[in-house]
Amino acid sequence: MKKKLNFQTKAIIAGRPVDAISGKTFETFNPANGKVLAKIARCEKADADAAVKAARNAFENGPWPKMSPAERKVTLQRFATLIEAHTDELAELESTEAGKPISDCIEIDLPETVSTIRWHAEAADKIYDQLSPSGPGVVSMIVREPIGVVAAILPWNFPLMMASWKLGPILAEGNTTILKPAEQTSMSTIRLAQLGTEAGIPDGVINVVPGFGEEVGKALGEHMGIDCVGFTGSTEIGRMFLRYSADSNLKRVLLECGGKNPLVVMPDATDLDVVADHAANSIFWNMGENCSSNSRVLIHSSLKDEFIELLIERARDWVISDPLDSACRLGPLIEEEHMKKVLSHIEKAKKEGAKLVYGGNRVLTDSGGYFIEPTIFDEVNPKMSIAKEEIFGPVLAILTFETPEEGIAMANDTDYGLTASVFSASNKTAHNAARQIRAGTVSVNCYGEGDISTPFGGFGLSGFGGRDKSLAAHDQYCELKTIWMDMS
Ligand code: NAD
What we know:
Elements: H1 2-5, E1 11-13, E2 16-18, E3 25-30, E4 35-41, H2 45-61, H3 69-85, H4 87-98, H5 102-123, E5 130-131, E6 138-146, E7 149-153, H6 159-172, E8 176-180, H7 187-198, E9 206-208, H8 213-222, E10 228-232, H9 235-247, E11 252-256, E12 262-265, H10 272-284, E13 296-300, H11 304-317, H12 336-351, E14 355-358, E15 362-363, E16 371-372, E17 375-378, H13 385-388, E18 395-401, H14 404-411, E19 419-423, H15 427-436, E20 441-444, E21 463-464, H16 472-476, E22 478-486
Parallel strand pairs: 7-8, 7-10, 8-9, 10-11, 12-13, 12-19, 13-18, 17-18, 19-20
Antiparallel strand pairs: 1-2, 3-4, 5-6, 6-22, 11-21, 14-17, 15-16
Helix pairs in contact: 2-8, 3-5, 3-7, 4-5, 4-7, 5-6, 10-11
Bound molecules: nicotinamide-adenine-dinucleotide.
């Protein structure tokens, strides 16, 4: 497999694969068996400096920011087509590194990565600047300019998709970038950057510095030569980037963080089969390692027993196996430490008095992989930690309410605010709830995140400063400039 997958383990700086300056490497593991997959360049501050130098040079002196948007569009479209042509390779790489089911990688992650780059490429030459209504004596232009060198700090749960959410608007607007993949999933990002070079994106426009957060991630956060950081990851680390910025050059910081998202089932929700389908998909998809998963079901008490039966039926259908098996729907969690953390959340929930009605165990232990079965807790109350903390595993908490108002209040009883789902037969009830729930995306009668044309990001501890996806993502990677020309 190693040969077939063509593991790429070096940093990419100025278009070339390079070792870390120190010569150090770190091991990356296959979460399906715990074995070492490869040794990756362990970048540190010196490598961050080299990447910033390359990105700055490409920004100041290279063709990318000066190209017409239409030219950038064509290059980015070529990039998307090349990613598409490498779907099988990238899907297999991502499945192996991240433990994601191969069918999800092929049917969801790769197509979305391709369509994201394509959508932002298309937008490149369709966004206009403005003239202000300042009267006939002046020409007052409000122009958008690329912000400069942008570092994108990435998580491990959707490595290629999250890279594309950042790369699409960053590159379409003429910026240059440094990608810092999560240490668990470096190789798909490195391969992505290589395809960018093959597509004709100039050297230095996409650099990749794999390594540890507290080493190269921190160096990027504190760097005086970086103009903006687009971060996706936990709230705890997101906060650090605000501090890094405050203590260095006040670089713009955009944070996409975690969530404890509610799925609210109103008393008039008619088709509980549909609700159970969406609820299962939302919490078990990607092993629950999904910022937008609905990890709290808030359901009217009259519907709960029937709903739990339907949900358990579905949980039984989630095939747990090697992620490269096409039947797999639930692969391993990303690493041993994370599996232990999820198992400790399960134990704590039991101790706090929640009722385990399905799952709760590590499984396929002989494989050496980090598999946990779908897990459902009933009789959860809002004070329990399982109702409050982001677990980031296939673990669902079910809580009940008596009135729609109480359901909405419970939905808002969180410091996060990324996504929510509402199920109701009444448009009025659903719409009222959608307007009152404090979250960046509220889906009605489905679990969903919208599509590439809709902004994605969170209220409260779920985010800061901007949005991924949609045209909103373009604005955040631009500076606004006023050009005031006295014509009198
Ligand atoms: P994480 O916060 O641990 O790591 C994210 C990135 O930050 C990684 O690249 C990591 O190396 C880096 N990092 C870690 N410590 C650092 C430090 N001290 N200084 C600088 N950089 C550092 O998150 P994760 O475990 O990779 O991902 C899971 C989290 O991501 C969850 O909370 C999830 O909800 C969130 N997430 C959010 C979205 C969204 O769009 N809102 C999408 C996916 C994941």
